[in-house]
Task: inverse folding
């Protein structure tokens, strides 16, 4: 079968690989019908996240179950399914607390040996371990493009809003309007946050956020801190979501959040950095961090996608065949796309 | 000044009363510009809730502050304001836990000596104690009809959904589509619940619920239990809200809720009744009850009314002058109205 | 092997049964070294809970793993383990929300076909499905008598206190001082509840509760409602735990709980009954019900048993060999014992 | 009357001051019978926190109400009371969310114009605004030394544990065993945390922590990270409390906390600093910060002090008369005392 593999920084290619085989009794094999390219894939593409040359990449997927082990009960051969970006054991200390994203035995698709040696999903087929936790049936009427978001990007937006611990009527600022930020905007609006401010520098992304019901704020041409003050009567937002993963974004999130509010750093941090702990402390902020617990959220996200309460289609800017994956990565790398969907 | 007073079961009249005077330093006097007739008023009208003949009734109000004590800081003379249905002390055991609806010194407008001897708001003016907690400025652009809901009916719908402890994407059934039930439907939808089922016997109310985004279910012409099963894959809804206050509604709420789900009895109960505790127990349900904590919710509700996320205008079926209050009560009693707004 | 089996109301006997065999890959076989007789066993003994004649009973156990399927990772052959009273799948809707006690595929040991046809643990050996969730290693230094409580009775006391949603310094009343009630007392005290009132009619049980740090209150010789009032300044306790499962206990729990407080019905209800919903409603109580989520609590309970923060040894009144199980049931039925431990 | 006043860095003196007079209707005047010297006072003493020369310092106090405004209802003249370290308005956005420590109108005793120009309590008398929120009656049998802790240091320990969001049986590490750290240790143990590790470099403090039920760990002579690993099976503690307020402490807290756990920075931060956000993020930690919400906790803390569940007496190392306050500050500055109580 064909598979998109990492070769070297800036270089991916389409390789021929053997078809996957069932190993454990809760494994499934999925014939991939759509796979997304994600910001995390770009970290690999840039060589910042190290994986073995030749490893198949990709972790967002929709497809059809073509084989399933005896213990797979939630889906069956022939089912159209979507996958979460990682597996979970369901029985460790962390799974027992429903923090599946920190499972002691989790494996992430397409991230090499460091994250469990699980081949990626930008391929004709994929082996899916712990299928009862990782796969869900796609509800009737939900397209591939939409379902693709449930197990990764929209699940991450949902997670960010969940961690913000807001109630309907609370105010939220989202910093950074890549796919995750835009999904967070949509979940916040759908969950009754009001107002939702969306901050970025790219006019098109601000327009999408506005169409989703947010108040768009240009990071540099406008004054986000001043605008937050005006809109919140000088108080600051109840929660700010940093969907960038950069100390400057974190700092702005800290500054625009009200006393005793919450900052959610859903953007990726990998290094030590300067944080104005004095300001955090005097404001008595709470800070939440980390990957998204998509397995914990996927059923709710799917329901909202099915009802139309969430609709990520405006984020899908490109469709490409698997053959053209190398070019698609180049396009994505030039920031010309929000979400590229690869189809066979 | 003029005031609508209770006289006897089935009899209210417009009386002349002296204008209220400031007594405590956190009192305000509000010139009433709109006051609603509520289901609770009907309990008084029917004589089921006993109050003294001659007592001024009404507890929903919008108006303008015409006098304020020295300690009133959140609003000032000239402000257009809305009120909550009750006062709170802000310092007792219950206020310290933000359960203002159970304040040890709470007084409810227009409910006679039993609830604090606080004259009602269906009048030209009203004395408002604990004004810092009870009053809020009406945001720009919010009409009287809309603002009127913040401190009572929509606040109660918000409370019901809050107690349901749901997250975006969870399913909800609302039983009983009077004003509170319809407000609960609207809050649930605005808060991302999906699906929201709305159950009643009155076609017009089912239509309003459908327009608010709910799935309407006729209580007797359809089979609510069967429909809930079909929609939830046999499981039941995550939460059911009983906005009726009758053992049959509670029983249905218990039956349509999934294992480990939540039943919220926001409808009023005043008597002992039969509850299928065996069913409650084997399903491990949680049950939440009681009046709404509107003071705890009013800022969020107001924000959502201002943004249009909540819009109760379809519930306002009648506008009447204070003079015609007796006739308005008769109309309301004949169930010909959802919400009647009295204006000077 | 030998197994205690239900025969008819009031009749259990020691039978010879074939040794269990591994079937699923996450099964384990445990050689039983201690098994408790529980109030639930008495319901079977009385014929109120129907099971098939000849079915092996018992669901509390400590022992040694003598065989384990390939997917069993949390324990291994030779490990000294304790079990939870039921199994769980780890992947259904309810397990995904950490409500393992409502798992769609749960099976309860020793409760016949109605609860999953899983033979009981009052036997020489037991088959333990979903061993990764159901079994835990017994920590060093924890005796059989103590470990036995983690997966059932103490887990249930822990659950009751957890559902009470109290914080250190909150007041609690426990109604009914059987093993579950006494365990709830101990967990409440260990968790910082203060004061903890313990209500029953049996002097010895009141003494045990007092030794655990509670204020003992005789149900009929004293006036529990009056005493609660005096101790709480007239307000009522923050939470009351009904460990009886009788409408009178529920009614008393409702009456002694403060406004906006919580009533936990951990005692078993199987029938409809009269509940003073008017009182519940005007006090705005929350009610929590159902079986205990012991799989969700067992690690914490075990830690507290290991540290001595919890110590159920005063509850163990009898040790008996498996041969004498029929007599032990008769003793338990005569209410002459709190906890009887059966050993081989 | 006499009052301890700040003069210059390293210099406090006993001055004569006019007795305070009631101004607002919810003011009270308290004759001070005991006042503590706190770590915050030391910041003033060192000149790091700037206040006006001549300002009366101190914010922990027990005494007797000698005058009260008409609106003071929770205490009355003649009552023996304790105070919280700050006032609150009870009606602002933050008070309405029970976050009294971030009240928009809060004033802190003895901290100069920057925190509300409220004279301190190391004096013969003190003016206490918002007395209904700030004062509590001292329960029978609670000594001055014990009551003194409720409104500041023990309230802060309680807050730290509350923010840690732990349940009975969860593990906790407390870093820094000054008075706040030791109080946090005591609250954690009293609330059922197990195990509680207590980390510091001072042997006497480690001994006190051990006497409170914690596992003492010497910061430099032992290896805290290694010990946490061993005790938690390699996983890390569920929550770590940084009671130091230094980047090194925060870093250690981050390192010893398990994935998806909580770090509480109760120690004071005033500056930007380096935080290993990469580590925080990959572990998906939550961080909680800020002053303690003692008004929100004081009733529970008082109850636990009255029952003996909490007992801070081992922390009181010195008693001194008001006259000797200058020497007492010098002693405290030399770290020769844990808690010094000033009496008239």
Result:
């Amino acid at each position: 079968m064909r598979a998109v593999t990492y070769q070297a920084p800036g270089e991916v290619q389409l390789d021929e690989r053997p078809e996957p085989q069932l190993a454990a009794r809760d494994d499934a094999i999925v014939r991939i019908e759509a796979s997304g390219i994600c910001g995390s894939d770009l970290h690999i593409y840039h060589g910042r996240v190290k994986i073995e040359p030749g490893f198949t990449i990709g972790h967002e997927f929709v497809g059809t179950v073509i084989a399933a082990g005896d213990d797979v009960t939630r889906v069956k051969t022939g089912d159209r399914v979507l996958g979460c970006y990682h597996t979970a054991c369901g029985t460790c200390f962390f799974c027992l607390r429903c923090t599946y994203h920190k499972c002691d035995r989790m494996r992430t698709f397409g991230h090499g040996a460091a994250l469990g040696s699980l081949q990626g999903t930008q391929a004709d087929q994929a082996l899916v371990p712990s299928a009862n936790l990782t796969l869900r049936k796609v509800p009737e009427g939900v397209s591939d493009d939409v379902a693709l978001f449930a197990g990764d990007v929209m699940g991450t937006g949902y997670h960010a809003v969940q961690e913000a611990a807001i109630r309907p009527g609370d105010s939220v600022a989202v910093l950074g309007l890549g796919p995750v930020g835009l999904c967070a905007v949509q979940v916040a609006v759908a969950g009754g946050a009001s107002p939702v401010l969306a901050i970025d520098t790219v006019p098109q992304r601000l327009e999408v956020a506005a169409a989703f019901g947010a108040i768009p704020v240009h990071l540099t041409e406008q004054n986000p801190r001043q605008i937050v003050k005006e809109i919140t009567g000088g108080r600051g937002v109840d929660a700010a979501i940093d969907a960038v993963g950069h100390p400057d974004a974190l700092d702005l999130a800290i500054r625009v959040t009200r006393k005793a509010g919450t900052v959610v750093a859903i953007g990726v941090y990998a290094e030590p950095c300067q944080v104005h702990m004095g300001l955090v402390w005097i404001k008595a902020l709470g800070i939440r961090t980390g990957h998204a617990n998509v397995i914990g959220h996927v059923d709710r996200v799917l329901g909202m996608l099915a009802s139309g309460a969430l609709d990520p289609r405006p984020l899908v800017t490109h469709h490409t065949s698997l053959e053209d994956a190398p070019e698609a990565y180049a396009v994505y790398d030039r920031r010309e796309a929000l979400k590229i969907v690869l189809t066979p």
User: Anything to note?
Assistant: Chain D has a mean pLDDT of 97. The longest helix of chain D spans residues 294-307. Chain D is about 30% helix and 25% strand.
